[in-house]
Amino acid sequence: MTQPTEIRRAAALLETALALAGQAVPVLPLRAGKVPFGNCRSCRDNACGGRPNMKVPGPCDCPRVCHAWAAATTDPAVLTGRPWTPVWEQTQAVAYHPGGAGLTVVDLDNDQAVTWARQTLPATRTVPTTRGEHWIYKGTMRSVNGVRDGVDIKSSMSYARWLGPGTGTMTGLPDVVRTLTVKAPAAVRSLTAAAPAPGGGGQCPHRTPVYLDRGIAMAEQRITEAREAVHATVYRTFLAVLSAHGRCGCLTDTHIGRLFTAAQAKGESFRHCTDAWTNALTRLGL
Fold this sequence. Notes:
Elements: H1 4-21, E1 27-31, E2 35-36, H2 76-79, H3 85-88, E3 93-96, E4 103-108, H4 111-120, E5 125-128, E6 133-138, E7 144-148, E8 151-154, E9 160-161, E10 171-172, H5 175-178, H6 184-194, H7 209-224, H8 230-245, H9 253-265, H10 270-283
């Protein structure tokens, strides 16, 4: 039998969820252990098609609290509807989908991580947690755990506990946070084999290194400023660089590494960068 205190707690959590949903923040309940509710029988083991592997909720239309972050909603009718009503009685906390709200949470899980953030990251809104702080920025990126000791990035395809509005003015997502997810050492270690520089053999039109450096800088900027169709932008940029500099043998692993780093900072995987580079080489006959 549900106790009065549990009823009051459930009502308070639902009230918090509805308030956040009213501010266009997608929310979901968390059960004991502060984890999402498991899939229902119909959706078990992603038999329904599975939303966690999708970048946006879908294609499953299950009305229950399934699929973790992908269940997050701003619809009050869903939050208060029959499939969700008994869930609130078992709920221990409210969570939200940062990426769905256009946000990124830098989750700092210990004192050392907090100290590092204060010395390294631009100031923004902060929320105290049990062991550290959440730093919240405007903007989205891919979510990656363990980018540093005690530091997780929670944005797209992830969830974060709601621990209050926090303090401070929320600022835009800085490049220093985006680059935390770039695994530069792995890229450099395998770059020569995976994305070789063209062998050259043509006549070099570059009278000074400045021409080449300017071209690489412009390519980096084009990738960095991409707001949509990042995959296509990376490929077209690689193609343009190789068209201009691929036949004279001037490109080095350092130049290619700069391009790969810019692409990975936008969320591209090293494998996609390699594929895009190889496809551009093939198209140009290099």
